[in-house]
Specification:
It comes from Parascedosporium putredinis. The chain is an alpha+beta fold. The chain contains three helices and eight strands. The longest helix has 24 residues. About 30% of the residues are buried.
Length: about 160
């Protein structure tokens, strides 16, 4: 029924040092509206093979490259995924795959799912923390994305 993420083999959930999945279902907005703010955050429009840098969870800035990017329509889901990495030795190297699915579902709501798989000792250390900061951080990201999309939808109505 739902679109799933196409995982590169080295990032398959359950085989990496850290994995989280967050998902919400929201009424009153569409996948197309959400997509606009997911891929154009402060005017950083993401497309397949784009490269960018970001910091998260206290790690030094990560290099990133978009590996998948398909915009949603009324009837097809959108999905975007990027690989991010930090060069280093065995204790500091990090390799990440972060994916999103945004889709309108049959009962009139939007489903937003984000999943991340991480390899490396920094990821293993992060996974040992309770609660996992990545799980909570991604939930905050989802909640913020939904709130922002809803506020923009109201102001344009």
């Amino acid at each position: 029924m739902f679109t799933h993420i196409s995982w590169p083999r080295q990032y398959l959930p359950g085989t990496t040092d850290n994995f989280v999945s967050n998902e919400v279902y929201v009424r009153g907005i569409t996948a197309e509206q959400v997509w606009k703010y997911l891929t154009d955050v402060s005017h950083w429009e993401l497309h397949k093979w784009d490269k960018f840098r970001f910091s998260t969870f206290g790690f030094p800035p990560l290099n990133a490259e978009v590996w998948d990017c398909v915009e949603p329509t009324d009837i097809t889901p959108g999905h975007i995924a990027w690989r991010a990495w930090q060069e280093g030795d065995d204790s500091s190297a990090l390799d990440v795959y972060h994916a999103w699915v945004v889709e309108n579902v049959d009962w009139g709501v939007v489903r937003i799912c984000t999943q991340e798989s991480q390899n490396g000792q920094p990821a293993a250390k992060l996974a040992q923390q309770k609660p996992n900061p990545m799980l909570n951080g991604h939930q905050d990201w989802l909640n913020g994305l939904v709130a922002y999309t809803k506020s923009k939808a109201k102001s344009s109505a």
